[in-house]
Design brief:
Elements (H helix, E strand, L loop, with lengths): L1 E2 L4 E5 L6 E6 L4 E6 L5 E6 L4 E5 L4 E6 L6 E6 L5 E6 L3 E6 L5 E6 L5 E6 L5 E6 L3 E6 L5 E6 L5 E6 L5 E6 L3 E6 L5 E6 L5 E6 L5 E6 L3 E6 L4 E7 L5 E6 L5 E6 L4 E5 L2
């Protein structure tokens, strides 16, 4: 599933590359996520809202309002019952998907929040911000469990490994950092991109990190050895987002060149 500044959300068949559904939004779409059962898409919009879409029918089911600035990152809880959103208004909001009820607002960042991720057990949220920090939150209580510092510029993307033990972050300082989620210890810094690192993610087995950058490349890193395995080139403009298929064999990237590209994992 992809979201665009052209005010559309598109659902694609990964195997064939064919377009299955077009969802027409009322504003620029900054972030999208698909539910664990594949039936629902949520979008974070430039109009400060979160929209809930039915994939099968292409219809808008609900709109969640409460943020006061654009919503730039959205995620589902692992059980699909909760939606988490991050906004340029410096807050994270937690919503009940079924009712649209706002369950909690998490505050603590000193600047715009640019990315969030939720742990596989659904208990922990990680966020990255313009304030150059990563914060770890207890979803149940809304309390800040930790603050990670080390990047020298804004943090554009965060992800959590499938075992829930590691956090990876990408920054405008052109680096990728790997952290211990429980302790906040910085484990490694990966250097290789020549511009902002816009998106980072782990493969499902946790052995590989994939990153995307304004340098128009996608890089593949070995988690254990902390080395660069491959660089994928082909986009003609900034690469904003990367995702990996559940079997870990396919990479999907989205770029400012208005294309999605599908890559075989090297």
């Amino acid at each position: 599933v992809s979201g665009s500044k052209d005010k559309t959300i598109k659902v694609w068949d990964l195997t064939t590359g064919s377009l299955k559904v077009i969802l027409t939004d009322s504003d620029s779409v900054d972030s999208v996520a698909i539910s664990p059962d594949g039936k629902t898409v949520i979008s974070g919009d430039y109009d400060n809202s979160i929209k809930v879409w039915d994939v099968a029918t292409g219809t808008l089911k609900a709109t969640f309002t409460g943020h006061t600035d654009p919503v730039v990152s959205v995620a589902f809880s692992p059980d699909g019952k909760t939606v988490i959103s991050a906004s340029l208004d410096k807050t994270i909001k937690v919503w009940d998907l079924a009712t649209g009820t706002l369950k909690a607002t998490l505050t603590g960042h000193d600047a715009r929040i640019l990315s969030l991720a939720i742990s596989p057990d659904g208990k922990t949220i990680v966020s990255g911000s313009d304030d150059k920090t990563i914060k770890v939150w207890d979803l149940a209580t809304g309390a800040i469990k930790g603050t990670f510092t080390g990047h020298s510029a804004r943090i554009l993307s965060v992800a959590i490994s499938s075992n829930g033990k590691r956090v990876v972050s990408g920054s405008s300082d052109k680096t990728i950092k790997i952290w211990d989620l429980a302790t906040g210890t910085l484990i490694a810094t990966l250097i290789g991109h020549k511009d902002d690192v816009n998106s980072v993610t782990f493969t499902p087995d946790g052995q590989t990190i994939v990153s995307a950058s304004d340098d128009r490349t996608i890089k593949i890193w070995d988690f254990k050895t902390e080395t660069l395995k491959a660089t994928l080139t082909g986009h003609s403009d900034d690469v904003y987002s990367v995702a990996i298929s559940p079997d870990g064999k396919t990479i999907v990237s989205g770029s400012d060149d208005k294309t999605l590209k599908i890559w075989e994992m090297p």
